[in-house]
């Protein structure tokens, strides 16, 4: 139960960060914020602070910032509807952007706290593909098969995906770039394909190294999330691999048992997923607003507020139905962890 509570608190931090992005940009753009809610459903507690009511609701699976004139056109200079498309876009984009910033911060803290594997070669296994090709200690892996290498996990994934196919590896040695071709071999001990190199591990990174690692790790997980989404939309991913809030709580509670770094890593990943999920161009999501506002900016024609309200209402209903379906799937057909 303690770990479940910790997991719920972690999820709440992601939601608060997301909604705070909307909140702070609304304030900076002079928009009145009527409600700031953590959670959905029945109200548990509400506190009035200035012109905004801060709410905590029963189900911690979402949240919202209610702005004056967001649901309908209001003739008020402080309404959302009265602001230019660019100002409204900045308010909407700020939510997902805050989740990305939070993920970078978490990855940076992880890197600073426990160190990380760099993309430079430390040790080379005797008689391995890397040794036979001519790689040396200190070589920095720049790209593999013309795919840029940002973090060590990039190398592992590219090698794993290509298995025993030849790889074009570009390395940097003494400020000069060199190219090698090598073919991974199957290692029975680890049950995977390997090229035979171990990374230089940076145990006590500087602040700049930590921030760079946080940024690059964020880019890595963003790419992996988009790849997973692409696989899902192509129908190549099983429904058994897809989970919702219950799966998130189960996974994060297990991560909490494994220690603070694993817990933070999981939530950094969740923060990225929350950002990307919200920019999907679906009505009621931030992505739906972004799509409509970009249309307004490009066409220089304002979309009728009543039509926007109807589309968002339908989208919200569909989204709630989808959440119920995913929730029921999580309960009766849980993802195997």
Automatic annotation (TrEMBL):
EC class: hydrolase
Pfam families, per the entry: PDZ_6 (PF17820), Peptidase_M50 (PF02163)
Limits of the PDZ domain: 103-175
Compartment(s): Membrane
InterPro entries (alphabetical): PDZ (IPR001478), PDZ_6 (IPR041489), PDZ_sf (IPR036034), Pept_M50_Zn (IPR004387), Peptidase_M50 (IPR008915)
EC number: 3.4.24.-
Keyword field: Hydrolase, Membrane, Metal-binding, Metalloprotease, Protease, Transmembrane, Transmembrane helix, Zinc
Source organism per UniProt: Clostridium oryzae
Membrane-spanning ranges: 89-110, 282-298, 310-328
Membership in a protein family: Belongs to the peptidase M50B family.
Biological processes per GO annotation: proteolysis
GO cellular component labels: membrane
Topology of the protein relative to the lipid bilayer: Multi-pass membrane protein
Tree of life domain: Bacteria
Protein's UniProt name: Zinc metalloprotease
């Amino acid at each position: 139960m303690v770990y479940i509570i910790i997991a719920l608190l972690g999820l709440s931090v992601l939601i608060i960060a997301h909604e705070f992005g909307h909140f702070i940009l609304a304030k900076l753009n002079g928009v009145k914020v009527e409600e700031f809610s953590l959670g959905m459903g029945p109200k548990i507690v509400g506190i009035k602070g200035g012109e905004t009511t801060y709410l905590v609701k029963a189900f911690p699976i979402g949240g919202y910032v209610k702005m004056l004139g967001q649901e309908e056109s209001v003739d008020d200079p402080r309404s959302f509807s009265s602001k230019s498309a660019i100002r409204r876009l900045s308010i909407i984009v700020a939510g997902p952007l805050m989740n990305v910033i939070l993920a970078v911060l978490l990855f940076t803290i992880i890197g600073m706290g426990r160190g990380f594997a760099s993309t430079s070669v430390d040790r080379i296994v005797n008689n391995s593909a890397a040794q036979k090709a001519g790689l040396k200690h200190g070589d920095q892996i720049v790209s593999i098969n013309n795919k840029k290498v940002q973090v060590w996990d990039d190398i592992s994934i590219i090698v794993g995906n290509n298995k025993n196919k030849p790889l074009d590896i570009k390395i940097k040695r003494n400020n000069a770039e060199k190219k090698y071709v090598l073919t991974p071999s199957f290692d029975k001990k680890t049950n995977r394909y390997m090229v035979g190199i171990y990374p230089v591990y940076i145990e006590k990174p500087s602040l700049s190294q930590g921030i760079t690692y946080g940024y690059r790790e964020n880019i890595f997980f963003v790419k992996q999330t988009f790849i997973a989404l692409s696989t899902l939309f192509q129908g190549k991913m099983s429904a058994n691999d897809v989970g919702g809030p219950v799966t998130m709580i189960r996974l994060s509670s297990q991560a909490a048992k494994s220690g603070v770094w694993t817990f933070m890593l999981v939530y950094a990943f969740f923060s990225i997923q929350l950002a990307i999920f919200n920019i999907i161009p679906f009505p009621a999501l931030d992505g739906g607003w972004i799509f409509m506002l970009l249309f307004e900016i490009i066409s220089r024609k304002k979309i009728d507020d009543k039509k926007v309200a109807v589309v968002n209402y339908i989208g919200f209903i569909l989204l709630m139905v989808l959440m119920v379906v995913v929730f029921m799937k999580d309960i009766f057909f849980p993802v195997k962890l």
